[in-house]
Specification:
- The chain is of the alpha/beta class and about 130 residues long.
- The chain is built from 5 helices and 5 strands; from the N terminus they run E-H-E-H-E-H-E-H-E-H.
- Helix 2 (about 40-50) runs parallel beside helix 3.
- The radius of gyration is 14 Å and the shape is globular.
Amino acid sequence: MSEVLGRVLVVDDDEVIRQLIAVNLSLEGFQVETATDGQDCLDRVGEVRPDVITLDVMMPRLDGWMTATRLRGDEATRHIKVVLITARAQEEDRKRGLGIGVDAYLTKPFDPAELIEVVRGLAEQAKAPQGG
């Protein structure tokens, strides 16, 4: 039995995109959980304990910007790697994401191979011993 590469919480309000991301990551050996929006993500992050969160920006209830800000502002979740996946491709959006402290920024439509590569790299960083 192969080792799980890491736990990923996939957050997107679009069920088709959520399943597309989840299936691609599952096939690569990740343990995947899903959430339907930012509030659902924050409600579940403690139980899921993901290494990486893929986060859509435009969602109802709580958007990706606020979700990422709250994850970074909480001592219990600030270490989790965050990938924003969004149709918002403007440079100002990318800068906003990096300013919040997200670890990667992918634009839709995304290349599944690139997504897998980014998530794999972040999961490896998350599992690496933390230098002090």
